[in-house]
Specification:
The chain is α/β, with parallel strands linked by helices. The chain is built from 6 helices and 7 strands; from the N terminus they run E-H-E-H-E-H-E-H-E-H-E-E-H. The longest helix has 25 residues. The chain binds glycinamide ribonucleotide. This is Phosphoribosylglycinamide formyltransferase.
Length: 197
């Protein structure tokens, strides 16, 4: 089975959905570790599933590069076949991206290239668009600029708040993420191939 390491910063609800999918008999990937840049609430989901966790606290390091070096050592030890950033709210420096790309994915709560960055849901709401979406991409050196592996539209409703809209997007993100991981694991989706669309 494809071994997957997941990195989070927050509540890890998408991580939990991936853990549930991966625990189904016959799912072609398994989650081998969950890491975080702080003591994230979502680490509890990994513990529920008996998956090892690790924390490399961003704040304990003098620079992004020093933090990423330590994170990189942990990932090298784990040696996963795929890394999934599932709500990791830190940019990874080019050296770490280069080490893993294209076997490093990110989920994003907008229809990229629309509304990249840390506030994809808020920015879509502020722009007054009638639809936004969810995307799963390969991480590259830009901010949410990597090749798009899957994406789907999600409507914005007139009374939406950031929370209500994000709550409508997340189930779509989960479904796309689980499907992309499955297709990579079966070889149906080849990350090494030049075009992903
Ligand atoms: C998800 O919507 C994810 O796409 C987003 O954070 C949320 C994490 O939710 N990531 C980004 O915005 C990255 N720029 P979760 O912790 O409940 O899975």
């Amino acid at each position: 089975a494809l071994s997957v390491a997941v990195l989070i910063s927050g509540t890890g609800s998408n991580l939990r959905a991936l853990l549930e999918a991966a625990s189904e008999p016959g799912f072609p990937a398994r989650i081998v570790a969950v890491g975080a840049d702080r003591d994230a609430d979502g680490l509890a989901h990994a513990r529920d599933f008996g998956v090892p966790t690790f924390v490399v606290p961003f704040r304990d390091h003098p620079s992004r590069e020093a933090w990423a070096e330590e994170l990189g050592r942990r990932l090298d030890d784990i040696a996963p076949g795929l890394i999934v950033l599932s709500g990791l709210m830190r940019l990874l420096p080019p050296a770490l991206v280069a080490r893993w790309s294209p076997r490093i994915l990110n989920t994003h709560p907008a229809y990229l290239p629309e509304f990249p960055g840390a506030h994809g849901v808020r920015d879509a709401l502020a722009a007054g668009v009638s639809q936004t979406g969810a995307s799963v991409i390969v991480v590259d050196d830009g901010v949410d600029t990597g090749p798009i592996l899957a994406q789907e539209r999600v409507p914005v409703l007139p009374d939406d708040t950031e929370d209500s809209l994000h709550a409508r997007i997340k189930p779509v993100e989960r479904r796309l993420l689980i499907d992309v991981v499955r297709r990579i694991a079966t070889g149906e989706l080849d990350l090494a191939a030049p075009a992903h669309t």
